[in-house]
Amino acid sequence: MTSIKTKNAVIHFNKEVYVELNKYIKATKPSNIFVLVDTNTHEDCLPSFLAELKSGEIIVEVMEMPEGEDHKTIDICTGVWEALSDYNADRKSLMINLGGGVVTDLGGFVASTYMRGIDYINIPTSLLAMVDASVGGKTGVDLGTLKNQIGVISEASMVLIDTAFLDTLPPQQMVSGYAEMLKHGLIYDKNYWETLLNFEKLTLSDLDDLIYDSVVIKNKVVTEDPGEQGLRKILNFGHTLGHAIESYFLGNADKTPLLHGEAIAIGMILEAYLSNKTTGLPDSELKAITDGILKTFNKVDISLNDQKFIFNLLKHDKKNSHGIVKFVLLEAIGKPKIDCQVENDLITEAFEYYNSQN
């Protein structure tokens, strides 16, 4: 696969990733290398990665964090910063983030702020991180249950996508990443969306090509608007309500936490309904989106009481300005519209629509 150039870096795929990584290390000669993993990737991914890494005389230190979104916190960052300091990391050190979106988001933030910034490389191991989290330079951590409230935009030196790591994922994690791929189709390319609808029939070769296409879509959007002043906002389709739902389920002890993609899938149906009522998304496309998503994602019970808390979380969405909640909606599949305002009564209707689905 042809490597993809971003504004400041390059994304490499499969056979090329370790060749390019070792060339980079040989050329840049980092003072030392730090590999951040979580408890899962330490066991499932680190051995095969280290077998490919050619560091020569450069010392390689492995740092492990707990797995899961609830550990994407400043406290964990502090532990990693302290570990870097204890191991005498300097401004010529290199950090490699080997993991899913939590590892690449948090590791990128740590690297971007340690000594005002050291080089880092993302090696995403989950489908979600491959198509979304590790591409585009958004780094950060959660503030309590509020998603990604603390962070900076800072691109990795390289992103290395080796789809062999997908063999280590449970099915639920694969489905979570699939949601972001569906989003890329809905906001950018109707043909891509329709190709994805037969997810369960796709071969590994098909998936490789679709991952590549998803990265191309995201990179085009990010390259045109790196600071999220306009076009890049379209990547938030499904995320205004989806993030609020994810935060609510994560912070409520009576609820089973949702994976990111599971919450975004709900958000996309809700925001498709809002689109149908406000920006002209045709009835047929609302039905296609609803049916297409529920074909793979299980319905989740969201009561009126749940909705009250979710509404309250909307005010923390990062797209808001001057206290106004702003949505990305669709005029048609592949035709998004940014900075849309919606009445609360219509959001309640959207939840009623979602809950009414079989």
TrEMBL record:
Residue intervals of the 3-dehydroquinate synthase C-terminal domain: 177-320
One Pfam family in the UniProt entry: DHQS_C
Necessary cofactors: Co(2+); NAD(+)
Keyword Nuclease applies: no
Keywords: Cobalt, Lyase, Metal-binding, NAD, Nucleotide-binding, Zinc
Domain 3-dehydroquinate synthase N-terminal: start-end pairs: 63-174
Keyword Nucleotide-binding: yes
GO MF annotation terms: 3-dehydroquinate synthase activity
E.C. code: 4.2.3.4
Entry-linked InterPro entries: Dehydroquinate_synthase, DHQ_synth_AroB, DHQ_synth_fam, DHQS/DOIS_N, DHQS_C
Domain of life: Bacteria
CDD domains in the record: DHQS
EC class (word): lyase
NCBIfam families: aroB
Functional note: Catalyzes the conversion of 3-deoxy-D-arabino-heptulosonate 7-phosphate (DAHP) to dehydroquinate (DHQ).
Name of the featured protein: 3-dehydroquinate synthase
Species, as recorded: Winogradskyella pulchriflava
